[in-house]
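[Q] Does anyone have a clean C-alpha cell version of this?
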Amino acid sequence: MQKNLLLLSGPTYEYIDPVRFIANASSGKMGASIATAAKSRGWFVNFITGPVHPSELPKLGSKGNIKQITSTLEMFEEAKKYFFDSKVIIFAAAISDLTPVKKSTIKNEYNDKNSTLELKSTIDIAKHFGEIKQEEQITIGFALQTHDSKNKANQKRKDKNLDAIILNSPKAIGRKSAEYTWIDEKSCNHLNTISKDECASLIIEYIEKKTNK
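[A] Here you go.
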C-alpha cells in the first residue's frame, strides 16, 4: 500500500434551517498542521474538511487533494471514497454529534416563548471505520474532554479501535499551542504545552515508525 493518508479536519455543520446550524468549535488548525507535516514526509494526503476559513487550509499542491464539505454525513460519504486505499486515517475533525430530526426549508420564526428542537445522533465516523479497518491500517483520533479526561479518552480509543488518541481540552480550540496527552495501548504521556505543528510532527513520526516495522 502506498503512502496514502486520509485526514478528516475542521467542524461539521448540521443545519436547522437555511441560516442556523449546530456545530462544534474548531478552527481546523490541527488538521492543517498534520497535513503539512505528512506532506513534508512524502505522504499523499486526502484532506476532507468542514467549513473553515480559507487561510486555515493546508497547501498540498500535487501531494494532496482537498475536499470541503458541510455536514457529518457528507464527510462520511467523502471519506468512504478513500478509506480502503489509505494506509493511515487520522480523525482530527470536530464533527457535530447531533443533527435535527427535520430540517426546515424556510427560516424558523422564534418569539419570546421557549422552543423545542428534536435531535438525533449523527453517524460515528471513527467508530464505523474502526470496525472495518484492515490489519495493516493505522487509525488515530482526538479527544477533547472537560472532566475525567484520561479515562474517557482511553475508552474512546478502545471503542473506536484506534491505534492512538490525542487528548486535549477546550483551551486548545483556535490556538497555535496547547497541552496534549498521547494515549495508546502501551502508554499515556502528557506532552505539556507544545505547538500544533510540533504535535503534528509527533503524530507523523509515530505512524512512520509503525509503518516501517
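[Q] Thanks! Anything notable?
[A] The CA atoms of residues 97 and 122 lie 5 Å apart.
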